[in-house]
Structures are given as structure tokens and as C-alpha cells.
What does this fold into?
Amino acid sequence: MRPALAYGLLAARRRARSLVLPAATVATGAFLLVMVVVLMPAVRVQGAAFGRAADIGRAAVVISVLVLLVGALEVAITATRSIVARTREIGVLSGFGVPPRSIVVGLLVEPVATAAAGGLAGAVLGAAAAVTGSAAGLIAAAPAPGPVVSAVSAAFGVSLVAAALASAPPAVRAARRPPLVSLTG
Amino acid sequence: MTTVTRTGHAVAVENVWKLFPVGDDVVRALVDIGFTAAYGEFVALMGPSGSGKSTLLHLLGGLDRPTKGTIAVNGAPTGGLTESQFATLRHSAIGFIFQSYNLIPFLSAVENVELPLMFEPVDRRSVRTRATELLELVGLGHRLHHRPARMSGGEQQRTAIARALIGSPVVVLADEPTANLDHRTGESVIALLEDLCARLGVTVIASTHDPAVAEHATRVLRMSDGRITEEVTHVRS
It folds into this structure.
């Protein structure tokens, strides 16, 4: 399995330029999710002033989860596009007798690494922005370390799992295709 | 990387048919094909487009299966092999040279040559040494780290030849190896294939329109409408 992972990482590194946009989208989703979770106490305080604390809190969570899902969807679309673009490469690998399982692993590294990088960067930036905002007096309630860590972990985990789940079916389909179909398709 | 013991013929084809259903009709792509190729032989499959050359190469390499008949590679019949077993056979005994090279654009020349072994838990340094030696053998020792986009058609085809040899195959199947090359580059690629047969004992089976390829082959099988219509053996001095 290690050689397939190494190949996948090499491909992701060399193709990094085409992965910037999906990584940025995932990062935005993770950033917003962390911000919302961390700022929830302050949002509740502000919402209470309008008499709609619960509604405003729920809306903020829904928006951030939607943004994160859009980011994950972007990764999935990019993974599918990338697999289509790499059809001949898959055909060559199959033609040279590389087992389908190794091809799947090699193909999955790219979307998962993209989501991991984007998710982590966005989550850490979100936490940093919340802490900085609080220190600067822009946020009413100081974020507690526990919820910050939980929010960063959740944003990172959701990005990773969504990318893996969304990318697996097209990768498996591509690796199982007869090599001749991939080479001439 | 596995070492393959050589037994029987490098390739033995017997009564092979390939039929493709097209609507209500059946296209007979290959009709009762039979031939053998010895180790170190250079066999050219000649004929017009649609004569069945590429289909035959696909069957020999297990990229497709015959409708009827038997094919043996390195003495082992391939008819009963599962896809996974055929993949293992391809990996250990068969090398491909594709018409359009099919190099991976984000890999350098030496990495492209290493590609068939990249998914195996083998010593990376020895694979790199072997890939470098092969690129030197095909005259590309100075282009190791160039990507395909920065290489000429001839250089890309030479890289593809080196890649076909990295697994020490018994048989190399070449689909129109000179089709996209100018005359001079084509000549050098043919000389290289001829040299591989003589020096490494690799059996090369190449489909081609190019009479120059046929001139260098030890045997020419002329094909028309899915049949072998003529077989010419060239005796080398």
C-alpha cells in the first residue's frame, strides 16, 4: 500500500496548481464552521439583544455546515474531473498490470490530501481569527480552548471524510474499467 | 520485480477468432489466426487500417479476450486467466509501446520509465539505476529529468520503449511504433527495437504500416480483413 500512497502523493504534489481552488473552497467552509462554533456564545448574547438568540444561532450553524458541504462537494467534483482527465494514465497503469486496489489508493490520495490541507488551513485560520478578534475586543465573549479545539477537529474531520466518501466511487469505477476502454476512451 | 523463466514459444497463437457484434451484424475482426514467435524474434504485423493488427496486439496483451482459439505467452495458455491473473502476467512478462506514447505528463522521463514498478515494494534506488540504464540504452541519458512536454516525439517514443523494458518482459507489443515520427527518427526507433531483440532476447511484435519496420523484422505477417494472408521470414546474416 505504501508505494501506491507514495505515487498518489507525488501526483498530488506535481498537480498542486490545479488543486488550489478546491482546497480554498474547503478552507472557507472549515473557517466559517470554526468561527461559528467558537463565536456561538457571543452570537447568543447578540441574538438575545434582538430576542431571537436560538434562531440566529441555528441559522449560523446551518450556513457554516452548508458552506463546508459545498467545499466537500467541490472536492468531489474536482476528484471526478481529475479522474476523467487521468483516464489514459489509469489505462497505462492497468495495461502494465498494476492492481486495481493500488490504482484506487493512488487516485484517492489527491482529493483527500487536498481536503486535509484545505480543511486544516481553514480551521486553524478560523481559530486564530476568533482568538485574535477576542484579544482585540471585537468579540464580546472570549473563546474557551475546549470548543476551539473541538471545532478545529470537527471541521478537519468532516472535510477529510466528505472528500474520501465522495471520491471513492469514481476512483473504484475507473480502476475497474478494462484497460483498453481507458486507453481508447 | 519478478524474473520470468522462458519456456516454449514466446508467443503461440492458435485458431484465434475475434468477433464484434455491431447491431444485428457481427464484424469478424480476426479470422482463424495462427502463428508462433520465438524468443528474440522481431515480428511485424503489416496491413491496412481495419485489417486486425491492433486487435491482435490487444488479444496478445490480454487487453481484450478472443472469441475463440488459444493464446499462450511464454509457454503458458492465457485462456483461463482471470483479469487479475492476466494483469500479473502483463506485469511480469509483457511490455507495451503505445502509438501515442501515453507518457504521464507530470512525471519526468526517468519516473515514466519507473512507472510499472512504482506500485511495488522494491528498492527504489535499484529501480532508479535500472531506469537510468534503460534511458541511456535508448540514447536519452541526457534527458532523465525532462517532462514529456519538453521532449520531441522521438524522445517520447524512446522513453516509452524504455518503460516497456523496465519489468524485463519476455514480449514487447508495439502498436504503430513509428506512426507519429519523421522518417529519420522512425529509423532510429526501428534500429533500437531490432537491437533489443538481438541483445536482450526480447520478442517484439509490432503492428505497422511502415515498410521500413517490415524490412528490419525477422518475420512479416501481412494481414487483410482479419486474416494472415502472407508470412515472410527474413534470414539475417
Summary: Chain A has a mean pLDDT of 84. Chain A touches chain B through 26 residues (CB under 8 Å). The two ends of chain A are 28 Å apart (CA to CA).
